[in-house]
Every structure is written in structure tokens, then in C-alpha cells.
Amino acid sequence: MVTSIMQQAVKEILSRFPRLHQSVFCLASIATERYNCIALAIGVGSYSWWPTSTRKGTKNGVEYYWPPSLPLTDEPTTFVRLFQVFGYSECQSAECVPGIEKVALFKVDQEIRHASRQLPSGKWWSKLGPKKDIIHELSSLDEGIYGSECIYLQRHQLSVGEVNQLLRQIMTDYAFPEELPINNDGLIILQGIYPIDEL
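RESULT FIELD:
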């Protein structure tokens, strides 16, 4: 039974991303709508992050959030500004660099459709809509439903103290939800997201 469910999930993923046929990838989560690709890339799994008209609320049973300081558009500049809030800046390449965290944004025409987060191994971690997370080569999602990667962002790997400072600043300056869960180490709790460092 589990095998047939997994086979169906893989078949559906391959139908949406044809270049995955020529690549190695693995499933990295159960299917969940609790967070989306933007939440995964940022590292905040309590909401799905997208510029919906309500900024915060529930749509089709999914909780969404979008900072009030950002416009309600899915243009690339809006998403760059979002990641800048979390300490990222634009960079020229997706090349893996020790001590640097990277994100790639994908677009169709001039609209952002997806974000993927780089792992220390150089592989990429993506949440595919309401489906499962996968670990993959970055270019293997090109020409699929998310278009192609267009913008790369980076920040240095944060220490626990830097995470604490950044979160306090963000929650004060950008009116993030008060109930944003933070653990004793000052890290945002990633509900349903499990870091995979060695893939």
C-alpha cells in the first residue's frame, strides 16, 4: 500500500517536472499544506507565505501570511524584498559555498512561482505546492510548471545569537504574527519541516 502511494506521488511529480526524468531526486516529506515553498526557503513552517489579498487568513483551509510592509504582487522584486528581511541579498550563482545559505527563485513570465533552498551538500530542497518536499538538482525543475530559476539569493549561515537578534528585529519591524512559534534556542519552529543536512 505504501509503495503504491509513493509510486503515485512520484508519477505525479514527474508529470509536472519533465526534467526530473533525467535526474536523481528523493521524496523528503509527507504531503502537507501546512507550509509552502516560500516558508520552506525562509525556514518558517507555520504558515504558507504568499501575497494573497488578505495578508493573513485562511484560503481553502490553508493559513497564509504576508508582511504588511510588502506589496501584494508576485513580481520578482517583491520576493527579493521578502528575503532581504531575512538577511538575504542577491548573488550571481547557485554554486554551493561553505558557510553560505542560498535560495533560488523560479518564475514564469514576470511572476514568481517557486523558491528552493540549498542544502550544505549542494542539493536543493523544494516544497511542491500542497504535495511533498523533494531533494533535487536545481536545474531538474526547469521547464516544469514553475518555469526556470531566475534569481539567486544568499546569506551567511547564522549562529543561534544572530538568529535571535534577527527574529526580534523582524517581529518588531515587520509586524509578523505574534504567535510565530520560537523554541528555547530562538529558532522559529519548523512545523512539518525536517532539516536534511547530508543528502
